[in-house]
Design a protein that fits this description.
single chain; mainly alpha; Fic-like fold; 0% strand
Length: 264
């Protein structure tokens, strides 16, 4: 599981994005100390809002506000939605903001590996207290929905293919790949497997962002308006997905710079 070659333009984009990420971090350090936490909270809220929309889950800004501030009553019907938002936020934060072994800390950088059991556990945590059945169980059918455009793996092949994919993250060839390559490759393969009837997209994108964060990049927020292009990239192949990820990393940085520079 690797890209056989990287053309010059792609490598140049890798370095340009990395330089901009470092500039953004430097800019944040110049702001009032409390602003960094506020900025991170805003980014996490945006991530959960848009990431949910990619899978057809329409949330309002009020939903996000209530879930992030825990301002909801347990007996209200939409509390299940609130609980899922909270789970999503906690999972994203734990996996994408607690990763060590980044390239900035280790000149002989190799990414962390992903365990098969970790995928199962993540599905449990995403739907904890939400009232979902079959937590951690693989889908038994190919869902007949129009959410994604690509062909999904047959249910009988999910377990073996998922084990193989997780095992490949331990291969030295994969671990030596550039973090953006790793993110694109793993996410593409994971979404072809699509192990769970619900939550596969959210889990797959958290793993994708995990590789980016380990590599010293910021998490990529795929805007809900990019939903169509995202589906097409998953259908068209790893190279298309990599280009899509880079496009969204660049546009996300544009927005983040505007936000940070507006603060005095």
């Amino acid at each position: 599981m690797f890209f056989e070659f990287d053309d010059f333009d792609v490598r140049e984009r890798f370095y340009t994005v990395e330089e901009r990420v470092q500039k953004l971090k430097h800019l944040l350090k110049k702001k009032p100390s409390e602003y960094a936490d506020k900025f991170q909270d805003l980014c996490t809220r945006a991530y959960v809002f848009h990431d949910s929309a990619l899978d057809g889950q329409v949330l309002s800004h009020e939903d996000i506000q209530q879930a992030f501030t825990a301002q909801f009553r347990p007996m209200v019907f939409r509390s299940r939605v609130m609980q899922e938002i909270q789970n999503h936020q906690k999972l994203f934060h734990a996996f994408c903001h607690s990763k060590g072994n980044t390239r900035s800390e280790n000149q002989v950088y190799q990414s962390n590996t992903i365990e098969y059991e970790e995928v199962i556990r993540m599905h449990h945590e995403l739907y904890e207290k939400v009232g979902r059945k079959n937590l951690g169980q693989f889908r038994k059918i190919i869902p007949l929905h129009g959410t994604y455009f690509h062909d999904l793996l047959a249910p009988t092949q999910i377990k073996s293919r998922l084990r193989a994919l997780c095992s490949q993250t331990k291969d030295s060839e994969f671990r030596a790949q550039h973090p953006i390559n790793q993110a694109a490759m793993f996410h593409f393969e994971f979404m072809q497997i699509f192990p769970f009837s619900e939550g596969s997209g959210k889990i797959g994108r958290i793993f994708m962002n995990g590789f980016l964060k380990q590599g010293g990049y910021d998490s990529v927020i795929i805007h809900s308006s990019e939903r169509q292009r995202y589906y097409e990239a998953l259908r068209d192949g790893k190279e298309s997905l990599r280009e899509f990820i880079l496009d969204n990393m660049e546009s996300g940085l544009d927005s983040q710079f505007k936000l940070v520079e507006s603060v005095q």
